[in-house]
Design goal:
alpha/beta, 409 residues, single chain, two-stranded antiparallel sheet, 16 helices, 5-stranded parallel sheet, 2 domains, 45% helix, Rossmann fold, globular
Length: 409
């Protein structure tokens, strides 16, 4: 072997020995650099700052803490129900019982997405039927048009008082313009963390006892996030806090901005939740179709709502639209997105002693008055300003269709 040949041979051996570690180091450095750029860009956005510094860690702590004998009605749903098994009477009964609020109570509920040291509680009152509502009679009074709303966080009104939900505003607006002899009732059957099967269980369980004239529902808020919080085994899900210590360590690390971009984290979250996006979407659609068929049999019109922040795109909701049979798709996202923020609304947002931006040190002069900022009670959920706009818009949509003069054919 010539000296040149020996040199090439030694170089090849050296590359084989140090090549893999070198490649790993280069990749690691690139990933860390990407993570840093990602983190820097997010830190300049107040929404992502709030999510990364405050909201996501609070959500993770809620899921990972010690289990309870019974889930608290105002915390994340530790017993999230899959949108499957709706032909099993025993399962549907279990879900129905968990869907109702404990009847006849009033709570001051802390907003778990906000700083607990600040004044962030909101009032929740339940009536004897387990709705977030004032007391109602089971029998509908003469001349009354009764609307029952079912849904997740937006319908429930997370973070706002009883008289600040869109259901309350909708009832107030409709009655302010109602003709003589006509009254409206809007029952709030929303639940925090509600999934479509929870709506179906209530629809089949007790809603028809109250003789509604119109249904509203807005499920889909958390359906695609279920696997983030639970690891699936068969038809049941284990809470993340029941994973091994190593898995919990990786899970918690992957919730931080520094780790979040790593391929390891993305793959880990896929592995602990075997229910993939397409399956989750299909099951959500199946339950919605079941609810629609129920409504059609009862000849009840339905508003199916889509909101900003829902991971399921609006076009998936549009598939349910069937105006000839009284099924209407209503998208509130453009209503809030395209409406200019008034000075009065901006003043109201910043007049509060604390808000979700002040918690991360952002002042009024630091950010523009955009809907994404002014219409939120925290980095995720709507506030009373958004619900006022939403309630007025829904009132217009209801009046436009003159439901009070007919039932669906």
């Amino acid at each position: 072997m010539t000296s040149m040949g020996r040199t090439v041979w030694v170089a090849r051996i050296a590359l084989r020995v140090i090549g893999l570690p070198l490649v790993i180091l280069v990749l690691a450095e690139g990933m860390l650099g990407g993570a840093q750029l990602f983190s820097d860009s997010r830190s300049k956005n107040p929404f992502f700052r709030a999510m990364d510094e405050k909201v996501q860690p609070r959500i993770d702590r809620q899921w990972l803490r010690s289990p309870r004998d019974k889930d608290h009605p105002f915390e994340p749903p530790f017993r999230v129900f899959f949108n499957s098994g709706y032909d099993e009477p025993r399962r549907m009964l279990e879900i129905f019982e968990a869907t109702q609020l404990p009847p006849g109570k009033t709570w001051m509920v802390p907003n778990f997405l906000r700083n607990p040291d600040e004044n962030t509680t909101f009032r929740v009152t339940s009536n004897r039927f387990g709705f977030r509502d004032v007391e109602r009679s089971r029998k509908k009074p003469p001349g009354t048009f009764r609307i029952i709303a079912l849904g997740s966080y937006p319908t429930f009104g997370h973070g706002v008082n009883d008289d600040e939900t869109y259901a309350h505003r909708l009832e107030k607006t409709l009655n302010s313009r109602a003709p003589k002899g006509r009254r409206y009732e809007v029952w709030n059957g929303g639940r925090q963390g509600g999934t479509a099967i929870m709506g179906l269980s209530r629809l089949e369980g007790d809603v028809m006892e109250y003789d509604p004239d119109l249904l509203i529902w807005d499920f889909g808020w958390i359906e695609l996030y279920l696997k983030r919080d639970f690891a699936q085994q068969g038809t049941r899900r284990n809470r993340v806090r029941e994973l091994s210590a190593v898995s919990q360590f990786v899970y918690e690390g992957c919730a931080t901005p520094e780790w979040k971009v790593l391929l390891l984290c993305q793959r880990f979250r896929e592995l602990i939740g075997s229910l993939d996006r397409s399956v989750a979407l299909a099951s959500w659609e199946n339950v919605n179709w079941r609810m629609i068929e129920f409504a059609k049999k009862q000849k009840l019109p339905v508003f199916i709502l889509h909101h900003a922040g829902v991971a399921i795109p609006a076009k998936r909701y549009q598939k349910f639209s069937d105006p000839d049979h009284g099924i209407y798709f209503v998208d509130t996202e453009p209503v809030l997105r395209d409406r200019p923020v008034s000075k009065e609304d901006a003043d109201l947002f910043w007049s509060k002693e604390t808000n979700w931006l002040s918690e991360i040190g952002v002042m009024r002069s630091d950010v523009p008055a955009t809907p994404e900022i002014i219409y939120r009670t925290d980095a995720i959920q709507y506030n009373e300003i958004a619900f006022r706009i939403m309630g007025d818009y829904l009132a217009e949509e209801i009046e436009k269709r003159r439901f009070e003069n007919r039932r669906v054919n």
